[in-house]
Predict the 3D structure of the following.
Amino acid sequence: MKSFIHLRRARFIVLAAILCTALFGQEPATSTTPTPPAQKENFHIYLLMGQSNMVGRDTSGLASQVDHPRVLALNADGLWAVARDPIHPQVGRIACGSGPGIPFAQEMLKSADPKVTIGLVPCAVGGTPLRRWIKGKGGDLYENAVSRAKIAAEVGVIKGVLWHQGESDTEKQQNAESYEARLTQMFKDFRADVNQPELPIVVGQLGEFLAISPTKYPYEKTVRAAIQHLPVVVPHVGYADAAGLADKGDNLHFNVDAQKEMGARFAKAMQELRK
């Protein structure tokens, strides 16, 4: 009788696995906690910094994502887990969706040594202006990013930063016109605080769809120009364009397909920097 019960349980587990794979394209989640590679140099760390388009706002593709065992993310408790969108914790009432981080990591792995695992460190928060990312008074998100970078560096090597922010600084002329200078200083400070003066940083461009609402984002051209010019004035900074990428219907946030492409563009720019 006991063997019959065990057989039924085994069949149920197999059927559940098949059903989960058919519905979601992946195996059921396990309770096994992933660990970084034993050799520190094989764990490549990338920080994800900025606001909502780094977080991701399109939730439509979450159920169909497939985990990659060599892409991990540092959660809010400082623990590593297999990266699965949304990898940023929700702050406020708006739900997090698919961002560019995981597509970036998967693209980077295509040309990486098979021993390499990528660790993503989510630090972005939607709706945040650049002043919260500046070192000093009021720069809470800057301090948080430095703190999380140091936690990650205990088990891996920080290889770069992805930056996508600027929408919140398009509303006031003063913020837009000082954007380039302030971000330049922030990158200098951050590199000093993580003790990597030549740390590769890739800046992502604002979505073209912001131009549809000129009264809401009156200085978006100024911020856009600053982002594009940054690699000219700051060494070891790359640029990921957002040309041709679509929004999710709100003229503000990239859709799932656009985030995948943005992740690939971030990866291409990062690979060029690392050469």
Notes: The chain has eight helices and seven strands. Confidence is low (pLDDT under 50) at residues 1-32. Residues 10 and 207 are 50 Å apart (CA to CA). The chain has two domains: 1-31, 34-274.
